[in-house]
Design a protein that fits this description.
With 264 residues, this protein is an alpha/beta fold. The chain contains nine helices and ten strands. A seven-stranded parallel beta sheet has the order 1-10-9-6-2-3-5. Strands 4-8-7 form a three-stranded antiparallel beta sheet. Bound molecules: 6-phosphogluconic acid.
Length: 264
Amino acid sequence: MTIPPPVSLAAPPRVHSHADPAALVAACGAELAALTARCVAQGGQCHIALAGGGTPRDLYRSLARPPLAERMPWSALHLYWGDERCVPADHPESNQRMVRETLLDHVPLPAANIHPMPVELPPAAAAARYTATLAAGLPRDAAGRLRFDLVLLGLGSDGHTASLFPPELAQDLHGTPLCRSGTQPQSGQARLSIALELINDARQIWFLVTGAAKVPVVRGILEAAPAARGWPAAWVRPRDGELVWHLDRAAAGSALDLIAPLDR
Ligand code: 6PG
């Protein structure tokens, strides 16, 4: 299947280049606390899908300590995972373990508001179970679409995001269940990921990207380079939500000329 170019964004993404990872964490933490408070004030709850991997760890840690920990409306916040490695929940590679260690073990989020992917099940059954969890838990808009208030995403240097990897892109573009199982192409590790379509229905989508290794993929996506057509991250195109790139200066790299001066 020849993959068409990603559909154009309803609105251009907001791209922020932060001086360093610590500045990115401080800005994202403050913006996330404000977004959560707005959501709860408007709708009574806030539903966020968390990114895995290494980049968001310090952001999650910052939410678990003052001043943000006191500002977050924990009882009205629901946390989900955007993707998971199919390993036991206490495994060193588990995204669930990472979020529990950096955030959940330190804040008064009710257990009923924590929605980990059920890695105790075989991958296909886990994906089906989480699809049901998402369908039951997420709010629907007037058109009946299930919508996260915020999806946090990391970015792989191969253009993957969540656990949506390039070899499986054609399947993702044709539509999948809300959560699907898949495979990390280098390691063969079984993975779970929320669907591209569900990501694109979110009201806000934030990419959190640090480090010079990500410059080629960041630039390729921001410039809509032809190579980006094979990258799942390039297909993160909110239908009517907002896409925000939070980059540190190292990841922004040569893409700085693409970023509006006020955000440099
Ligand atoms: C995962 C993530 C994955 C990650 C990127 C970036 O479970 O690994 O969801 O998509 O966000 O690989 O990882 P780093 O933040 O560690 O660079």
